[in-house]
UniProtKB/TrEMBL annotation:
<keyword id="KW-0808">Transferase</keyword>
<comment type="similarity">
    <text>Belongs to the glycosyltransferase 29 family.</text>
</comment>
<keyword id="KW-0732">Signal</keyword>
<keyword id="KW-0333">Golgi apparatus</keyword>
<keyword id="KW-1015">Disulfide bond</keyword>
<comment type="function">
    <text>Catalyzes the transfer of a sialic acid from a CMP-linked sialic acid donor onto a terminal alpha-2,3-, alpha-2,6-, or alpha-2,8-linked sialic acid of an N-linked glycan protein acceptor through alpha-2,8-linkages. Therefore, participates in polysialic acid synthesis on various sialylated N-acetyllactosaminyl oligosaccharides, including NCAM1 N-glycans, FETUB N-glycans and AHSG. It is noteworthy that alpha-2,3-linked sialic acid is apparently a better acceptor than alpha-2,6-linked sialic acid.</text>
</comment>
<dbReference type="GO" id="GO:0006491">
    <property type="term" value="P:N-glycan processing"/>
</dbReference>
<dbReference type="InterPro" id="IPR050943">
    <property type="entry name" value="Glycosyltr_29_Sialyltrsf"/>
</dbReference>
<keyword id="KW-0812">Transmembrane</keyword>
<protein>
    <recommendedName>
        <fullName>CMP-N-acetylneuraminate-poly-alpha-2,8-sialyltransferase</fullName>
    </recommendedName>
</protein>
<keyword id="KW-0735">Signal-anchor</keyword>
<feature type="signal peptide">
    <location>
        <begin position="1"/>
        <end position="28"/>
    </location>
</feature>
<keyword id="KW-0328">Glycosyltransferase</keyword>
<dbReference type="Pfam" id="PF00777">
    <property type="entry name" value="Glyco_transf_29"/>
</dbReference>
<keyword id="KW-0472">Membrane</keyword>
<keyword id="KW-1133">Transmembrane helix</keyword>
<dbReference type="InterPro" id="IPR001675">
    <property type="entry name" value="Glyco_trans_29"/>
</dbReference>
Length: 350
């Protein structure tokens, strides 16, 4: 219990600090951003009432603006250091410590022995720098894109939610250096790991990751703890070599704080936006694929929510915690400014 209170306090203080800090530097940042022309002016107005902005980003003529990339990296560093916040470390906890869920402070989680043994000793992203990175979202816009080779050609490839690759490799590629896994995926895609065939399939999928990073947001909301526990036990039992990471308790608030200073109010940043935000620390050039939060493409053809399953659209639902079209328009604006490259069309074969 002593730990509970301590962590609660630390967490509260850091949240307060973030908001205080946000407020404090909002003015100067706003001034700076206005000069940069970085500030987004009411993306939602541009979007209209749930009417998607179907315009794809310009494909040709994109150039990287390296000074803008550096400026964004520096700004984000005022809120979080992805090297540190990408994962809590073994030294932060002891088995049996109780923590409060980041987005559900009344609920708690006890750090199990197996979870503790999988916490990294040092950040899996320590001192890692890359010339070009790909952040791959899971939109059906990737189907028939032929982007697999281009994606695999990046120095570092970030993927979301353990999406299947082999059957779609032409369009999505195979290389994975960093893969996120929300606990809910275990139920949705692996039957909660309740029977042996699901467990075998899951272990096979993880084995494909070799020694790359598996990033599990285990401390966000209550609900997935038994799944995370089963995952941890399978990793240990099968002696999988992948490097597990569990995002820090402050990450989401810090990311939210950064985007707020750009007038982008996102209660719960999507995994894709989180990954872009983290990647700014490690990557000189960030290319985004598979980001398309609309049910139709620019020609009016239907687009699946995920390239690999039959999940239905929730972009405009009030129940959805994410603000996908707002996020997308932000990314599109950053594309036009040369801060990142957003690919939503077919890739020209290399
Ligand atoms: C790069 O971005 C900065 C900051 O937005 C801007 O001042 C500069 O003109 C841009 N450079 C080019 C070549 O577009
Ligand atoms: C923001 O958008 C409004 C119209 O929606 C416009 O009148 C205003 O000039 C814009 N401001 C900036 C800074 O672009
Ligand atoms: C894992 O290693 C195998 C064999 O070296 C390789 O073929 C495969 O592409 C690697 N997987 C990833 C995700 O890098
Ligand atoms: C295991 O569960 C999955 C559903 O998650 C089901 O499709 C499969 O048939 C089951 N296999 C066995 C051997 O019970």
């Amino acid at each position: 219990m002593r730990i509970t209170r301590k962590h609660w306090t630390i967490c509260t203080i850091s949240i307060l600090l973030i908001f205080f800090k946000t407020k404090e530097i909002t003015r100067s940042v706003e001034h700076e951003e206005a000069q940069l022309g970085l500030m987004v002016n009411g993306s939602e107005k541009i979007l209209g009432k749930g009417v998607p902005a179907f315009l794809p980003p310009k494909a040709g003529g994109w150039t990287l603006n390296s000074s803008l990339v550096l400026m964004i990296r520096k700004d984000i560093l005022r809120f979080l250091d992805a090297e540190r916040d990408v994962s809590v470390l073994k030294s932060s906890f002891k088995p049996g410590d109780v923590i409060h869920y980041v987005l559900d402070q009344r609920r708690t989680l006890s750090i199990s022995q197996s979870l503790h043994s999988l916490l990294p000793d040092v950040s899996p992203m320590k001192n890692r720098r890359f010339k070009t990175c790909a952040v791959v979202g899971n939109s059906g816009i990737l189907l028939k894109s032929g982007c697999g080779k281009e994606i695999d050609n990046h120095n570092f490839v970030i993927r979301c939610n353990l999406a299947p690759l082999v059957e779609f490799s032409e369009d999505v590629g195979l290389q994975s250096d960093f893969t996120t896994m929300n606990p809910s995926v275990i139920q949705r895609a692996f039957g909660g790991l309740k029977n042996e065939s699901d467990r075998v399939r899951f272990v096979q999928r993880l084995t494909m990751l070799n020694e790359s990073v598996l990033w599990i947001p285990a401390f966000m909301v209550k609900g997935g703890e038994q799944h995370v526990e089963r995952v941890n036990e399978l990793i240990l039992k099968n002696k999988l070599k992948l490097r597990t990471a569990y995002p820090s308790l402050r990450l989401i608030h810090a990311v939210r704080g950064y985007w707020l200073t750009n007038k982008i109010n996102i209660k719960r940043p999507s995994t894709g936006l989180l990954m872009y935000t983290l990647a700014t620390r490690f990557c000189d050039e960030i290319h985004l694929y598979g980001f398309w939060p609309f049910p139709k493409d620019s020609k009016g053809n239907a687009v699946k929510y995920h390239y690999y399953d039959a999940l239905k659209y929730r972009y405009f639902s009030n129940a959805s915690p994410h603000k996908m079209p707002l996020e997308f328009n932000t990314l599109k604006m950053l594309h036009h400014k040369g801060a990142l490259k957003l690919t939503t069309s077919k890739c020209t074969q290399l």
